[in-house]
Amino acid sequence: MSAQNSKGIQTLLDAEREAQNIVQKAREYRSKRVKDARSEAQKEIDDYRKQKEDEFHKFEKEVRPLPLRLHLPPIYFPPSPSTLNNQQANTTPEQHTSGNKKAEEDAAQDADDQVQAIKSAGDKQGQHVVDDLLRVVTDVRPEVPDRVAQAQA
């Protein structure tokens, strides 16, 4: 019976070792996939950064002011279409905008709404405010300050 228990224990130990090996391989595979994903993401980030830097440098070359003299501030001379190739001649400012036209329109509408609200509040309360100011300015009631009154007493 002891041999049979020993054999059963040995089988359980073997199964446990095999399970540990499977778990270890799964961990290694997972860590490898995480490393691969990080390196792939970094590669995509680098590619995107390079693309945006290239776009910026192209934009900079198109818009950069040309200094006439060192002691003068730079002056911008737009390139003439005859000096540009067809691709550069067809560039428009829209190519260099951030594409936030909807946000700009919303902000402009919000500003207009606020200006209208201020104007309507001014129309409603304006005369009352003017009347209060005129009353305070024209109805003068001189009073002796407490410090002066105490000093004279």
Write the SSE topology.
Layout: H1 2-63, H2 86-89, H3 101-138, H4 146-152
Helix-residue proportion: over 70%
Structural class: mainly alpha
Count of DSSP strands: 0
Distance between the termini: 118 Å
- Number of helices, where a helix is a run of at least 4 consecutive DSSP H or I residues: 4
Determine the strand fraction and express it as a percent band: under 5%
Most strands sheet = none
Low-confidence stretches: none
Radius of gyration: 40 Å
Query: How much is the average pLDDT?
Result: 80
Query: What is the 3D form?
Result: elongated
SSE string, helix = H, strand = E? HHHH
Could you please describe the fold and organization of this structure?
By secondary structure, the protein is mainly alpha-helical. 73% of the residues lie in helices and 0% in strands. The chain has helices at 2-63, 86-89, 101-138, 146-152. The radius of gyration is 40 Å and the shape is elongated. The termini are far apart. The mean pLDDT is 80.
Notable features of this structure?
about 150 residues, about 75% helix
Provide a brief overview of the structure.
The protein is an all-alpha fold and 153 residues long. The chain is 73% helix and 0% strand.
